[in-house]
Amino acid sequence: MPITFTRLTDIPLSDIVAHMSDPRLLDHMPLLSGDWTDQRAAEFVAFKEGFWTRDGLGHWAILQDGKYVGWGGFQKEGEEWDFGLVLRPDQFGLGTRITAKALEIARADDRIPFVTFLLPPTRTKLAALKRLGAVYVGDIDYDGETFMKFRLDTPSATA
After folding, report:
1. Which of the four CATH numbers 3.40.630.30, 3.30.450.40, 3.50.50.60, 3.90.660.10 does domain 3-110 have?
2. How many CB atoms lie within 10 A of CB 134?
3. In terms of pLDDT, which residue wins out, 115 or 93?
4. Which helix (H) or strand (E) holds 38?
5. Which of 10, 31, 117, 149 has its CA 20 to 30 A from that of 136?
6. Are 103 and 96 a contacting pair, CB within 8 Å?
């Protein structure tokens, strides 16, 4: 069951619309609102592609055995690289494997000495994040919502 990363532009907009329209995502995505249409999905993809242009890194579409299971990746916030992951609810169990694969990429990138994770207070299952070595930094306000912020040092494998 290989997990691969590709660009969001490779995914049919209808797949992204169906994913982001799933009401189960609302429980853990306080910034998610409104109806998802092909136009909104196209704007979302263009926005995420902008980070690749600006920073040389961004969010991917995530595939398992060639099938779209969600999106996630790194987004530069000031001087920090934040890692986010949004899986289809029926694929939530893949989070640990996907995160490990993404962290391999972070460790190979000298620009990323650490990553941050912003989680809504509704996320109460944090054992996997703590097993990775992430440390709770504190609560922060992001776009009017409260998130728990964690930090994980990502020393290069060659360091």
Report:
1. 3.40.630.30
2. 22
3. 115
4. helix 38-55
5. 31
6. no
